């Protein structure tokens, strides 16, 4: 039986129902807590669902919001500001997904792709909430990251009482969430295992999908095959995960599936977008390009009433999550309470432009007309609108040797820069980096970071691009300034051959002010610490290259290495 009590929080009394049991259609019960005002009346409800544990989310009542790099920041407290939800006269309902927290059942694989669909559970959960006496039958959802992805999965199932969703910081293309340009990213490991500022999944009955579908002998062969990758074999944490996967079941599955394809597509919420027929508001902050990319892709795939809001840098919101609530309540007041506040009269797309520190609006992404222009890599670390006129015999390639991090803590970085801009240059959209490179191994990473460098020496990260050299193949979705890679196979590089590698630069919006320079940096590993990395959790880095590699970057008349960038109309490129 549920425990019903009243508490004081945020200067008001809140009715709390602890440990409710919510029945699923297969007989499994999910655990939930509810929070609402003490008045005995029905009200709209906002549902939050994740495997991180409802008790962790309850800390939003007692833990002041923290920003990175605070050591108190916990990336999994993402269900929203409980006291604020109650103050706005909504019921806040926080549930544990099956196999996690206090819920029954089992979770098999990431997003339970090997078990009962999470969208199906969300349907049953939402319809149960709508039938409770404290709910008026109007339901929305709340929460970021995993909670955000759950909103999309739920909406695609079309529960009758789910009237709208507001998704902030969701993750969609799960391959792109874990392998940027084919390079493994460790932050999802932290969210699942509980590392580096994340509490992780509240394990109750979580199982590896790979262990469900493969025999022990097949798994041994797959593990040994994966350990043939020098990058994996050189990283102790991955060796440990592969040899001892217990309580690391999800990351074990991810490490064994390093190529895109059916394994990831079947849990890709973007594929479900055509099923969504309720209003959707999507919000994401800049500085985490891969999630901006997925948010825009989902926005474009939706055919329902929709909004897109791309906010300012930095990338990591507070924990407990408290941002975006003003916009969220305007959205839900309109769709759940029927208050005509004009929210649907406003532009569909709003984008914060860094540098100018202003918001621009439009009906689509990008919100302004853009023309992709090239900035060419030139000798002496220069970027120029004009290509190099001389051949390689006179414009010798740039280069760097990177020793593996097992023997050094130094990350080598090549850098090129424009001259200072003489007038505002506004860039909004995606971009590309075309690199003509020669390496002496069969694989490496290309990691590119684009900076806005101010005259006083301050720098802000604008966007990033990643590509594992063996994943260099492009597919037919690629256009100028918008390259796409299938990542469905790895093709080893012929050592000594000059190849063109095309990196996708994640979506961004920035104005380079007069006196500022655009700086591009290239490496095959990431700096161990810098101003941007300090804003991310400790585990938010990519798998380093486990072999020594010499890189030559050609940028002569026959090898026009360049950036292709989205300049808006009337913006001047550097040097023009």
What does this structure look like?
GO terms for molecular function: hydrolase activity. The chain is an alpha+beta fold and 576 residues long. 19% of the residues lie in helices and 30% in strands. It folds into 2 domains: 284 residues, Alpha/Beta hydrolase fold, catalytic domain (Rossmann fold), CATH 3.40.50; 199 residues, Jelly Rolls. Strands 16, 17, 18, 20, 23, 25 and 26 form a 7-stranded antiparallel β-sheet that branches. A hairpin with a 5-residue loop joins strand 21 and strand 22. The mean pLDDT is 93.
Topology:
Blueprint (H helix, E strand, L loop, with lengths): L2 E7 L2 E12 L5 E9 L5 E8 L3 H4 L24 H6 L3 E6 L10 E2 L9 H13 L4 E7 L4 H11 L8 E4 L5 H5 E2 L2 E2 L2 H7 L12 E2 L1 H5 L2 H11 L3 H4 L2 H8 L5 H8 L5 H4 L14 E6 L3 H13 L4 E6 L13 H11 L13 E5 L4 E5 L7 E9 L3 E3 L13 E5 L11 E4 L7 E15 L5 E9 L5 E10 L29 E15 L4 E7 L25 E6 L7 E7 L8
Parallel strand pairs: 4-5, 4-7, 6-11, 8-12, 12-13, 13-14
Antiparallel strand pairs: 1-2, 2-3, 3-5, 9-10, 14-15, 16-17, 16-26, 18-25, 19-24, 20-23, 20-25, 20-26, 21-22, 21-24
Keywords: Hydrolase
Protein name: CocE/NonD family hydrolase
GO molecular function: hydrolase activity
